Amino acid sequence: MNQETKTCQNCKTGFTIEPEDFAFYEKIKVLPPTWCPECRMIRRMLFENERQLFRHKDETTGKDIFSEFPPQVRAKIYNDEYWQSDAWDPIDYGRDYDFSRPFFEQFRELMYDVPWVSRSARNLVNSDYVHGASNLKDCYLCFNMGNCERCAYVSDANNMKDSVDCTTLDRDEFCYECTNTIDSYQARFSHRCEKCHDVWFSRDCVGCSNCFGCANLRSRQYYIFNRPYSREDYFATLEQFGLGSHQSLEEIKKQVRQFSLSLPHKFMSGTHNINVSGDIIASGKNVHESYNITDGENVRYSQSLAMGVKDSYDFTVWGQHSELMYEVLVSGDGCSNVKFTMDSWPANHDIEYSFKCMSSNNLFGCVGLRKKSYCIFNKQYSKEDYFALREKIIRHMNETPFTDTEGRVYRYGEFFPPEFSPFAYNETLANDFFPLTKEEAVNKGYVWRDPETREFQTTVDAQNLPDHIKDVGDDILKEVIKCASCAKAFRLISMELEFYRRMTLPLPRVCHNCRFIERTKYRNQPKFYSRTCQCAGTKSENGIYQNQTSHVHATDHCSNEFETSYAPDRKEIVYCEECYQSEIV
Questions:
Q1: Residue ranges of E strands in 75-141
Q2: DSSP label of 108
Q3: Spatial CA neighbour of 207 closest among 198, 195, 192, 215
Q4: DSSP for residue 425
Q5: Where does the pLDDT of residue 362 fall: very low under 50, low under 70, confident under 90, or very high at 90 and above?
Q6: Does a cis peptide bond (omega within 30 degrees of 0) precede residue 417?
Q7: H-helix or E-strand containing 194?
Q8: What local confidence, expressed as pLDDT, does residue 198 receive?
Q9: Which of 71, 79, 118, 288 shows the smallest number of beta carbons within 10 Å?
């Protein structure tokens, strides 16, 4: 089919469906979407809490347990061991399909009737306070992670060791306050770095070691603010910076930010790619309008996928050798042909409109099933009856659609309505990427839930903590600290204190949640804009950066256009691939 422009029924703006999109929809036998890619992404993210744990009542014991779900959720919550046991059977909640009512209305009832597992986690050792995690050892408040040891306050990471306060990392060790780093050791306050060792406040560096406040370097050593130093002078200068002092560190942060803005930024972060667009893409082939994808092929409109995903659209979080995924959230590990489904793994195939199902096939509208086949609304059918009823339900979904509280219409092919989510907007991945105030969220029709405040008597104000790490004693672990930003109470754990001492870092003055918010301000959103290279010939458009080499377009303004996650109102100088490569050192 030819390219077609539609109006999003959510935001009312136009969006384009490309011929290759139509080919994918035909391949998986769904109608084209009625929401634009951005609204579809946010709709999925509204169902994912990636960074918070709540106390919830365990229905099996009556005791409080930690859960991804807030206590206000009316669903029954089982602890992980009981939920995965044979002590109960989700098939017992099976029911007939009612052709007098819309599908989505019936599914919501089933969804909240069947018990939910408290959190998604497996193969944990001394890592009780985690979610969306597997194969963790000695980790604390870590989320969406795999194969990690001795980490705290880390999210969206794999193969990590001995790191604190990091987001989106892979194969890193002894890292602090980093985002989007790969294969690095002792990186601090650094972003988009790869194969770096002992770097501070660096950005877009590859193969560098002993660098401070640098950007756009390749295979360099002993550099400070992109200037070369002798080994002796380099370490002497770092000593003068006084990096173990909170006051000194805050002053340096301001200098680093201004210096970084004076140098070009590559329009997208990526490596070892063929025919890709988006941001933070590695080893991709035919990946487009996607964000944070590793080892993907023929992927579009997707976010935060790794370990091999093929032929998938609108897929958010996880992956791991999955294919033919469409409008799916937090699923993977060998899944295939999964549509409109949440939190279902491993090795599911041919399932639709399902939630928390495991190792199953041929499911439609099911919740909590494990190792089942040919089920609809948790009721078992023969293979022949299953396919016959499935076709009847799809026709009924199109003839008798569901209308949500905002007047949006849902037929077969739409993901779940936002009002079905157990989370308020401010508890979700959507708010992590697209933060809103309470008023803004409510005006957009989202639920907002003010967090329950537990009263803790703080014993020390963060502003009164010792300035230098060398002056901090073990008694700090007994203190309840008042966050300098949100004024909430927080404590330090022993693993964290040991880390600060080893890395010669001052104690943080804000809680881990405020640290996440501050750290991810410099992370681009998964939203893309059409822009033109800002190289104006011999210097940048704003005149701040002077090119160090001549470019192929000589003194003319570069005419290259691209899609980028740098919004037009951002202060960064954004160069195309060719101009950026000409300027790296």
A1: 77-78, 116-117, 121-125, 130-137
A2: H
A3: 195
A4: G
A5: very high
A6: no
A7: none
A8: 98
A9: 71
What confidence score (pLDDT) does residue 325 get? 98
What tens digit of pLDDT does each residue of 18-27 get?
999 999 999 9
| Distance between CA atoms of residues 312 and 293, nearest Å | 12
- 314 with 329: CB under 8 angstroms? no
Write the DSSP symbol of residue 61.
Answer: T
**Helix, strand, coil share (%) of the chain residues, nearest 5:** 25, 35, 40
Distance CA 247, CA 249 (A): 5
Amino acid at 141: L
- The strand pair at 142-158 and 161-170 is best described as parallel
Could you give the residue ranges of the DSSP H alpha helices within 141-277? 231-241, 246-261
Please enumerate in sequence order all residues whose Cβ is within 8 A of that of 531, keeping only pairs 6 or more positions apart, or say none. Answer: 267, 561, 562, 563, 564, 566, 568, 574
Q: Phi, psi at residue 398, to the nearest 5°?
A: -80, -35
Which DSSP string corresponds to 456-480?
Answer: ---SEEGGGS-SBGGG--GGGGG--
Calculate the CA 474 to chain-centre distance. Answer: 34
pLDDT in tens, 126-139: 999 999 998 999 99
- Angle at CA 140, nearest 5°, toward 136 and 142? 70
Residue 153, CA distances (Å) to 67, 134, 166, 431 in order: 17, 16, 7, 18
Residue among 152, 130, 259, 264 at smallest CA distance from 584: 264
Neighbouring CB atoms inside 10 A of 223's CB total 22
DSSP string, 275-301: EEEEEEEES-EEEEEEEEEESEEEEES
**Residue 100 tokens, joined:** 């007098």
Q: How far apart are CA 33 and CA 46, in angstroms?
A: 18
- pTM, to two decimals: 0.95
Q: Phi first, then psi: what are they for 532, rounded to 5°?
A: -110, 145
> Per residue in 122-141, is it b (16+ CB within 10 Å) or e — as a string?
eebeebeebbbbbbbebbbb
